[in-house]
Design goal:
By secondary structure, the chain is of the alpha+beta class. The chain is built from seven helices and five strands; from the N terminus they run αβααββαβαβαα. The chain is elongated.
């Protein structure tokens, strides 16, 4: 029975990045090249997170042939055997599943952000959309951040721009063209500024 002598786990680095550009993965490659290394096999905890695209196919020769280090993948039920037919095809399938997982994460993140903004009115950063302004929404839900005095912000309708934006959407729902809406806004804007007393030297 073997034992684990070292762990290499990259945090905050995209799996699409090659191993040589991931700090922990690069450290593992360097350790495999050390003749005095303390291990003779590498266990891939999650192939979907360890490899991406054709990374495994291009790196497989490095382990056994170049460094003489065995590779164990849980999805294969044990050690990788280059001579066993079907394993390379299975690893390619796992690489494809890795791409699918990234796509699923992106969809989940976008869906969560949409719900937070649409249903909860949460402010997720960036410039507020036209017609909205930032409003205080109470203490931060993270207790550590709340103790530091941080508060969450939500999107609130701007009292000056909000009515104009609502009017624009109402006109679009009434099937008016953008050109017609623009002309109407221009007439309203000119009517408003002509009612404002102009100072000497000012121009409209």
């Amino acid at each position: 029975m073997g034992r684990i002598v070292a762990e290499f786990f990259d945090i905050g680095h995209n799996r699409t990045v090659p191993w040589v550009r991931r700090p922990e993965a690069a450290a593992l490659l360097a350790a495999m090249g050390d003749p005095d290394r303390r291990f003779d096999a590498v266990i891939i905890g999650s192939s979907e997170r360890g490899f991406y695209g054709h990374q495994f196919a291009t790196m497989a020769p490095l382990f056994e042939e170049h460094y003489g280090v065995g590779v164990w993948v849980p999805e294969l039920g044990g050690a990788v055997d280059p001579q066993m037919g079907g394993q390379e095809e299975l690893m390619i399938l796992l690489d494809i599943l890795s791409k699918w997982e990234i796509a699923r994460v992106r969809v989940r993140m976008r869906s969560a952000m949409t719900v937070q903004t649409r249903d909860q009115g949460r402010y997720l950063g960036g410039r507020p959309p036209y017609g909205y302004r930032l409003a205080d929404a109470g203490p931060h839900p993270n207790r550590a951040l709340a103790r530091r005095g941080l508060r969450i912000q939500s999107l609130d309708i701007d009292p000056y721009c909000g009515p104009a934006l609502s009017w624009i959407f109402t006109q679009r729902l009434a099937r008016h063209s953008m050109a017609r809406i623009t002309r109407a806004l221009s007439r309203l804007w000119l009517a408003e500024i002509t009612d404002i007393p102009q100072q000497k030297g000012s121009c409209i």
